[in-house]
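can u pls check wat happens w/ glutathione
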Amino acid sequence: MTQQPAIEITAYDWVPDMARGKVKDMRVRWALNEIGLPYKERLVGGAGGEKSADHLDDQPFGQVPIYKEGDLTLFESGAILLHIGEKDERLLPRDPVARGRAIAWMFAALNSVEPFLQALFLIDLRGEGQPWHGPASGALQPFAENRLQQLSAALGEREWLEDRFTLGDLLMIDVLRTTSKQQFVRAHANLAAYVERGTARPAFRSALAAQMAAFEEREPK
Ligand SMILES: N[C@@H](CCC(=O)N[C@@H](CS)C(=O)NCC(=O)O)C(=O)O
Protein backbone atom coordinates (compact mmCIF):
# COMPACT_ATOMS: atom_id res chain seq x y z
CA MET A 1 0.00 0.00 0.00
CA THR A 2 1.36 3.46 -0.85
CA GLN A 3 1.68 5.83 2.08
CA GLN A 4 -0.12 9.18 2.00
CA PRO A 5 2.24 12.18 2.00
CA ALA A 6 2.49 13.85 5.44
CA ILE A 7 2.16 17.33 3.90
CA GLU A 8 -1.03 18.86 2.52
CA ILE A 9 -1.20 22.11 0.62
CA THR A 10 -4.38 23.99 -0.21
CA ALA A 11 -4.90 25.50 -3.64
CA TYR A 12 -7.88 26.82 -5.62
CA ASP A 13 -9.86 24.51 -7.87
CA TRP A 14 -10.52 27.39 -10.25
CA VAL A 15 -9.08 30.85 -10.95
CA PRO A 16 -9.47 33.11 -14.02
CA ASP A 17 -7.14 32.37 -16.95
CA MET A 18 -4.86 35.32 -16.23
CA ALA A 19 -4.07 33.94 -12.75
CA ARG A 20 -3.37 30.34 -13.79
CA GLY A 21 0.20 29.36 -13.04
CA LYS A 22 0.58 32.42 -10.80
CA VAL A 23 -1.38 31.50 -7.68
CA LYS A 24 0.84 31.60 -4.62
CA ASP A 25 0.65 27.89 -3.83
CA MET A 26 3.23 27.76 -6.67
CA ARG A 27 5.87 28.92 -4.19
CA VAL A 28 5.15 26.07 -1.85
CA ARG A 29 4.93 23.44 -4.58
CA TRP A 30 8.22 24.69 -6.02
CA ALA A 31 10.05 24.57 -2.67
CA LEU A 32 8.78 21.07 -1.88
CA ASN A 33 9.82 19.88 -5.34
CA GLU A 34 13.31 21.32 -4.89
CA ILE A 35 13.89 18.90 -2.01
CA GLY A 36 11.77 16.04 -3.34
CA LEU A 37 9.14 16.14 -0.60
CA PRO A 38 5.80 14.75 -1.74
CA TYR A 39 2.55 16.50 -0.82
CA LYS A 40 -1.14 16.01 -1.26
CA GLU A 41 -3.48 18.74 -2.48
CA ARG A 42 -6.68 20.07 -1.00
CA LEU A 43 -8.52 22.05 -3.64
CA VAL A 44 -10.99 24.67 -2.44
CA GLY A 45 -13.43 26.95 -4.22
CA GLY A 46 -14.02 30.61 -3.53
CA ALA A 47 -11.14 32.30 -5.39
CA GLY A 48 -12.07 35.98 -5.19
CA GLY A 49 -15.46 35.12 -3.68
CA GLU A 50 -17.16 33.67 -0.62
CA LYS A 51 -14.89 31.53 1.59
CA SER A 52 -16.01 28.49 3.51
CA ALA A 53 -15.83 28.47 7.31
CA ASP A 54 -13.20 25.69 7.13
CA HIS A 55 -11.06 27.81 4.84
CA LEU A 56 -11.29 30.82 7.17
CA ASP A 57 -10.42 28.63 10.15
CA ASP A 58 -7.18 27.67 8.42
CA GLN A 59 -6.38 31.03 6.82
CA PRO A 60 -7.83 34.11 8.54
CA PHE A 61 -7.84 36.11 5.27
CA GLY A 62 -9.43 33.34 3.23
CA GLN A 63 -6.41 33.03 0.94
CA VAL A 64 -4.17 30.28 -0.33
CA PRO A 65 -1.67 28.74 0.24
CA ILE A 66 -2.37 26.83 3.43
CA TYR A 67 0.11 24.18 4.60
CA LYS A 68 -0.69 21.30 6.94
CA GLU A 69 1.68 18.82 8.48
CA GLY A 70 0.57 16.79 11.50
CA ASP A 71 -0.77 19.22 14.09
CA LEU A 72 0.68 22.23 12.32
CA THR A 73 -1.44 24.48 10.11
CA LEU A 74 0.44 27.36 8.53
CA PHE A 75 -0.62 30.27 6.37
CA GLU A 76 1.40 33.05 4.65
CA SER A 77 3.72 31.80 1.93
CA GLY A 78 6.80 33.33 3.59
CA ALA A 79 6.15 31.52 6.88
CA ILE A 80 5.44 28.29 5.04
CA LEU A 81 8.68 28.53 3.08
CA LEU A 82 10.71 29.25 6.21
CA HIS A 83 9.23 26.12 7.77
CA ILE A 84 10.09 24.04 4.70
CA GLY A 85 13.55 25.61 4.58
CA GLU A 86 14.26 24.27 8.07
CA LYS A 87 14.00 20.77 6.65
CA ASP A 88 16.75 21.00 4.08
CA GLU A 89 19.85 23.08 3.67
CA ARG A 90 19.46 23.08 -0.11
CA LEU A 91 16.74 25.68 0.47
CA LEU A 92 18.13 27.47 3.51
CA PRO A 93 21.86 27.24 4.27
CA ARG A 94 22.82 26.08 7.76
CA ASP A 95 25.75 28.47 8.02
CA PRO A 96 24.35 31.40 10.08
CA VAL A 97 25.71 34.12 7.82
CA ALA A 98 24.44 32.57 4.60
CA ARG A 99 21.17 31.68 6.31
CA GLY A 100 20.66 35.24 7.54
CA ARG A 101 21.29 36.61 4.05
CA ALA A 102 18.84 34.16 2.47
CA ILE A 103 16.13 35.14 4.97
CA ALA A 104 16.82 38.83 4.35
CA TRP A 105 16.15 38.27 0.63
CA MET A 106 12.95 36.41 1.44
CA PHE A 107 11.73 39.43 3.40
CA ALA A 108 12.94 41.76 0.67
CA ALA A 109 10.86 39.88 -1.90
CA LEU A 110 7.73 39.97 0.26
CA ASN A 111 8.15 43.32 1.93
CA SER A 112 10.21 45.58 -0.34
CA VAL A 113 9.39 44.43 -3.86
CA GLU A 114 6.04 42.63 -3.96
CA PRO A 115 3.91 45.34 -2.26
CA PHE A 116 4.61 47.96 -4.95
CA LEU A 117 3.94 45.54 -7.82
CA GLN A 118 0.84 44.18 -6.11
CA ALA A 119 -0.53 47.67 -5.50
CA LEU A 120 -0.09 48.54 -9.18
CA PHE A 121 -1.98 45.41 -10.14
CA LEU A 122 -4.85 46.34 -7.82
CA ILE A 123 -4.94 49.90 -9.15
CA ASP A 124 -5.26 48.51 -12.70
CA LEU A 125 -7.86 45.97 -11.61
CA ARG A 126 -10.12 48.38 -9.76
CA GLY A 127 -9.28 51.58 -11.57
CA GLU A 128 -10.32 50.82 -15.13
CA GLY A 129 -12.32 53.80 -16.41
CA GLN A 130 -11.96 55.65 -13.12
CA PRO A 131 -10.61 59.23 -13.12
CA TRP A 132 -8.09 58.33 -10.40
CA HIS A 133 -6.61 55.38 -12.32
CA GLY A 134 -3.90 57.25 -14.27
CA PRO A 135 -2.78 59.52 -11.41
CA ALA A 136 -2.72 56.70 -8.85
CA SER A 137 -0.78 54.39 -11.14
CA GLY A 138 1.56 57.20 -12.21
CA ALA A 139 2.29 58.12 -8.61
CA LEU A 140 3.22 54.59 -7.60
CA GLN A 141 5.11 53.44 -10.70
CA PRO A 142 8.38 55.26 -9.93
CA PHE A 143 8.59 53.47 -6.57
CA ALA A 144 8.17 50.07 -8.22
CA GLU A 145 10.62 50.90 -11.01
CA ASN A 146 13.15 52.17 -8.49
CA ARG A 147 12.93 48.97 -6.46
CA LEU A 148 13.59 46.88 -9.56
CA GLN A 149 16.46 49.15 -10.55
CA GLN A 150 17.97 48.66 -7.09
CA LEU A 151 17.38 44.91 -7.22
CA SER A 152 19.05 44.75 -10.63
CA ALA A 153 22.08 46.60 -9.24
CA ALA A 154 22.26 44.24 -6.26
CA LEU A 155 22.08 41.14 -8.46
CA GLY A 156 24.66 42.43 -10.93
CA GLU A 157 26.11 39.64 -13.05
CA ARG A 158 25.64 36.95 -10.40
CA GLU A 159 23.58 33.85 -11.04
CA TRP A 160 21.66 34.13 -7.76
CA LEU A 161 21.24 36.86 -5.14
CA GLU A 162 23.92 35.23 -2.99
CA ASP A 163 26.51 32.64 -4.02
CA ARG A 164 23.97 29.83 -4.45
CA PHE A 165 20.22 29.31 -4.97
CA THR A 166 18.14 29.72 -1.80
CA LEU A 167 14.57 30.44 -0.79
CA GLY A 168 15.44 34.11 -1.22
CA ASP A 169 15.77 33.49 -4.96
CA LEU A 170 12.71 31.29 -5.09
CA LEU A 171 10.51 34.02 -3.58
CA MET A 172 12.11 36.88 -5.50
CA ILE A 173 11.76 35.05 -8.82
CA ASP A 174 8.16 34.19 -8.05
CA VAL A 175 7.41 37.85 -7.32
CA LEU A 176 9.12 38.97 -10.54
CA ARG A 177 7.62 36.35 -12.81
CA THR A 178 4.05 36.96 -11.63
CA THR A 179 3.88 40.74 -11.76
CA SER A 180 1.48 42.23 -14.29
CA LYS A 181 4.19 44.87 -14.91
CA GLN A 182 6.52 42.58 -16.88
CA GLN A 183 7.88 45.62 -18.73
CA PHE A 184 9.51 46.77 -15.49
CA VAL A 185 11.33 43.43 -15.19
CA ARG A 186 12.29 43.31 -18.87
CA ALA A 187 13.82 46.78 -18.55
CA HIS A 188 16.74 45.01 -16.77
CA ALA A 189 18.40 42.28 -18.83
CA ASN A 190 19.93 40.69 -15.72
CA LEU A 191 16.54 40.46 -13.96
CA ALA A 192 14.89 38.95 -17.04
CA ALA A 193 17.71 36.36 -17.28
CA TYR A 194 17.45 35.67 -13.53
CA VAL A 195 13.74 34.88 -13.87
CA GLU A 196 14.48 32.63 -16.84
CA ARG A 197 17.14 30.77 -14.88
CA GLY A 198 14.83 30.22 -11.93
CA THR A 199 11.83 29.15 -13.96
CA ALA A 200 13.96 26.71 -15.99
CA ARG A 201 14.61 24.66 -12.85
CA PRO A 202 12.92 21.25 -13.07
CA ALA A 203 11.33 21.81 -9.63
CA PHE A 204 9.62 24.95 -10.92
CA ARG A 205 8.46 23.27 -14.13
CA SER A 206 6.80 20.41 -12.26
CA ALA A 207 5.19 22.83 -9.78
CA LEU A 208 3.69 24.73 -12.70
CA ALA A 209 2.41 21.55 -14.31
CA ALA A 210 0.80 20.49 -11.01
CA GLN A 211 -0.99 23.80 -10.49
CA MET A 212 -2.26 23.83 -14.07
CA ALA A 213 -3.38 20.20 -13.84
CA ALA A 214 -5.74 21.07 -10.97
CA PHE A 215 -7.51 23.63 -13.18
CA GLU A 216 -7.53 21.38 -16.23
CA GLU A 217 -9.10 18.52 -14.28
CA ARG A 218 -11.99 20.80 -13.47
CA GLU A 219 -12.35 22.03 -17.05
CA PRO A 220 -11.22 19.20 -19.33
CA LYS A 221 -10.44 20.32 -22.86
N1 LIG B 1 0.41 37.22 1.91
C1 LIG B 1 -0.23 36.02 1.43
C2 LIG B 1 -0.95 36.34 0.14
C3 LIG B 1 -1.70 35.14 -0.38
C4 LIG B 1 -2.53 35.54 -1.59
O1 LIG B 1 -2.47 36.69 -2.09
N2 LIG B 1 -3.32 34.58 -2.08
C5 LIG B 1 -4.22 34.86 -3.17
C6 LIG B 1 -3.96 33.92 -4.32
S1 LIG B 1 -2.40 34.27 -5.07
C7 LIG B 1 -5.64 34.59 -2.72
O2 LIG B 1 -5.94 33.59 -2.09
N3 LIG B 1 -6.53 35.52 -3.09
C8 LIG B 1 -7.94 35.41 -2.86
C9 LIG B 1 -8.42 36.37 -1.86
O3 LIG B 1 -7.64 37.18 -1.34
O4 LIG B 1 -9.62 36.32 -1.58
C10 LIG B 1 0.78 34.90 1.23
O5 LIG B 1 1.92 35.22 0.83
O6 LIG B 1 0.47 33.72 1.47
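Residues 96-201 form a domain with the Glutathione S-transferase Yfyf (Class Pi); Chain A, domain 2 fold (CATH 1.20.1050.10).
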